[in-house]
Amino acid sequence: MGVSGLPPDHDLYARAALPSYGRDPDAPLRLLSLSENATYLVDDAEPIVLRVHRADYHSLQAIRSELAWMAALREQTDVVTPQLVAAEDGSEVVTTVRNGHPLNVDAVTFISGCTAEERPDVVGFDQLGRITATMHDHVQGWRAPDYFTRFSWDADSMIGPQGRWGNWRHAPGLTTADEAVIERVATELNRMLAEFGCAPDRFGLIHADLRMANLMIDPEVEAGPITVIDFDDCGWSWHLADLGAVVSFIEDTPEAEAMIAGWLAGYRERRELPAEHLDMIPSFVILRRLQLTAWVASHAHADSAIAFADGFAEGTARLAERYLADRHWLRSAIYT
User: Fold this and answer.
1) What is the pTM of this model?
2) How many CB atoms within 10 Å of residue 307?
3) How far apart are CA 298 and CA 293, in angstroms?
4) Distance (Å) of CA 319 to CA 163, 179, 186, 275, 287
5) DSSP string covering 4-22
6) Which of 72, 80, 105, 312 meets the CB 3.0–4.6 Å disulfide criterion with 225?
7) Sheet harboring 29-34: ordered strands across?
8) C-alpha distances out from residue 197 to 93, 157, 245, 260, Å
9) Is 215 in a helix, a strand, or coil?
10) Radius of gyration of the chain (CA)
11) In this predicted model, what pLDDT tens digit does every residue of 100-142 receive, in sequence order?
């Protein structure tokens, strides 16, 4: 198995799935991203996107659950998501086997344009805030299918030593002093989150990875839709963890403050955020940063980790110091 949990010949799993979708086994395949999964564009007359899942992340029912929520959002709200492409036999997920090793594959429609990461200047963050509020509201009234199952993102699975994305303590470049300051923040976050609690007004099914790379836009279309993609990490967590993910990798920049202010303006048009929740936003931003530090430490192969690995853990320690010195360091973005 590769570092990602995927075998090195993941392209052959994608290729083996092509006939199930009525595609030529020799259709051109282009790798779009490699992270928890390998995502391929089937670049033929009617392009679709195939995703090859690593073996140890989600069960078949968990993948079907993710796809069910994505479809329900598309059909029952104004949130734009890719459309599931079922296999010719009607299956939502195809299992392909090579050398006795099975992997699950699914397919969705291809979304043209570019990611918000490529053109953040044309993203309406108030629009993204409204989208997120709609997603949080939808779940509270949605009747999920009987088979529905997704994991939880609690403090332990995010920043504990056995965290789902790895252990931030193993991040390259961490000095003993850096580790000590981040550990102080982790202890504080555990305490605050336990106190904040998991009541339904603050905790539910969330996307959990609403970073810029998972939003598709068309820069040519003014005020065009934002398409939310990649629900692979969706699960049960605090609603504000979705805001922490929006500023992934750039938490300590003026751009992040502008993004947070825009997101909050849009979110609060559709959904209330009491003062107790607003006060927690800096904690959710640093929580996400610690979670990403663990991810960079354990995902050396992933596109984003390669781009951000250098100096990232050191940057986390500096942000941790800032947070400990001033819990309200984002006040101008939050209380505008």
Assistant:
1) 0.94
2) 12
3) 9
4) 20, 12, 13, 23, 11
5) TSS-TTHHHHHHHHGGGGT
6) 80
7) 29-34, 38-42, 48-52, 101-109, 94-98
8) 35, 16, 20, 23
9) strand
10) 20
11) 999 999 999 999 999 999 999 889 999 999 999 999 999 999 9
- As given in the structure block, the two tokens for residue 217 are 């836009």
Instruction: Say which residue the tokens 């994608």 belong to.
Output: 14
Where is 34: in which H helix or E strand? strand 29-34
DSSP state letters, 267-279: HHHHS---HHHHT
Residue 209, SS3 per DSSP: coil
Q: What letter represents residue 18's amino acid?
A: L
Would you say residue 1 has pLDDT above 60? no
- Tell me the CB-side half-sphere exposure of residue 189, using CA atoms within 13 A: 28
Distance, in Å, from the CA atom of 41 to the CA atom of 29, rounded to the nearest integer, reads 6
Taking the alpha carbons at both ends of the chain, their separation in whole angstroms is: 49
Over residues 155-183, the pLDDT tens digits come to: 999 999 999 999 999 998 899 999 999 99
Nearest to 267 by CA among 289, 243, 287: 243
